[in-house]
Structures are given as C-alpha cells and as structure tokens.
Amino acid sequence: MFIRTDRLFLRPAWSEDAAAILDGIAEREIVRNLARAPWPYEMDDARAFASIAQDPRVPHFLIHLPDAGVIGSVGFGLDGEDVEIGYWIARAYWGQGIATEAGRGLLAIGRMLGHTRLVAGHFADNPASGAVLRKLGFRATGSVVMRHSLARGGDAPLVQYACSLTEER
Questions:
Q1: How would residue 104 be classed by pLDDT, with cut points 50, 70 and 90?
Q2: Measured between alpha carbons, how far is 93 from 35 in angstroms, rounded to an integer?
Q3: Which structural domains are found in the chain, ordered by start?
Q4: Buried b (16+ CB within 10 A) or exposed e, 59-77
Q5: Using one digit for the tens of pLDDT, what is the confidence trace for 61-84?
C-alpha cells in the first residue's frame, strides 16, 4: 500500500532502507519519545524495523520526501483491542508540518481500511507531539498512564488521545 500527500510519499520499508532509517532516527531526542525503539538505536535495529512484515489491517510506512529520501515513519499498531498510530520524524524536518501531513495521509488510509476510531499518545515531556495529534483531530481522553519506553529504560507518563474517523471534520 502506498499513499501520496502534497509533499510526501508514504510507502512500506524495504531492506535497503536500513541505512536511511538509522540516519533519521538514531538520536536520543527522537528515540526517547517512542515506546518500542531501543537506545542506542543501531544498524541491527534499523534492519529489523525495515524487515517487519506488513499487517494489512495495521500497516506502517516510511515517510519519503522527494529529493531528501526517507525522513521518518508513520503507521498503525495494536494497543490491546485499539488501533494506535505512531510516528517519528528526523530532526532536520521538525517544525515543517511533516508529521501532520503524514498523519493526515495515515488517517485517510485508516478510513479506507474501515477503522472507525484510533488512539494515540505522547509522553508528557513531548508536548509537540500532542500538538500534532490535536491538529489531526485527536482529543485528549483525560487519561495519563504509565507506558514503558525501551529507550528511557522504564515507564514514563503518557497522555492518551482518541480520534473518531466517522465524525465530520
């Protein structure tokens, strides 16, 4: 599955993307805001990420920017029974609306796949991610839970959000 947005191309990862994934993600300030990525993030981790099989119900994508290459990732995952979204953007592309644009593309895919509700969260010390989620139409649930982060080496408070894909925007 592939999707185009105004500036971006969302596509599955291929094994030859490992070096680009590593170049984009291997900064502590990026990885510490993810739950499942280890720190330090190394080439074996990038290879493993690039080789994750796609689940047609909850696919994940690399964010490709023409003339720049792979600059991040966005995708679905399962959090219990809930379908969750997650993303990371290479630091050089922070503050340019990339996460919001990629997220909008992901929501379009979610609707196409028949998802009616999505969840997401951000670690409490990463409010910029909360701003992205609100731009995408997610609303804070009022719940803050402890979530494990491999890179942090422990639990940290996670602000939870939900988004209905059936409401008019």
A1: very high
A2: 21
A3: 3-164 (3.40.630.30)
A4: bbbbbbbeeeebbbbbbbb
A5: 999 999 999 999 999 999 999 999
pLDDT in tens, 114-159: 999 999 999 999 999 999 999 999 999 999 999 999 999 999 999 9
What pLDDT is stored for residue 167 in this prediction?
A: 77
- Round to whole Å and give the CA distance between 3 and 124: 30
The percent of residues above 70 in pLDDT, for the chain, comes to 99
Q: What is the 3-state secondary structure (H, E, C) of the chain?
A: CCEECCCCEEECCCHHHHHHHHHHHCCHHHHCCCCCCCCCCCHHHHHHHHCCCCCCCCCEEEEEECCCEEEEEEEEEEECCEEEEEEEECHHHCCCCHHHHHHHHHHHHHHHCCCCEEEEEEECCCHHHHHHHHHCCCEEEEEEEEEEECCCCEEEEEEEEEEECCCCC
CA separation (Å) from 78 to 48, 129, 149? 18, 19, 16
β-sheet with 139-149: strand ranges across: 3-4, 9-11, 60-65, 69-79, 82-89, 117-123, 154-164, 139-149
Taking phi over 0 as left and psi of -120 to 50 as alpha, with beta for the rest, 48 belongs to: alpha
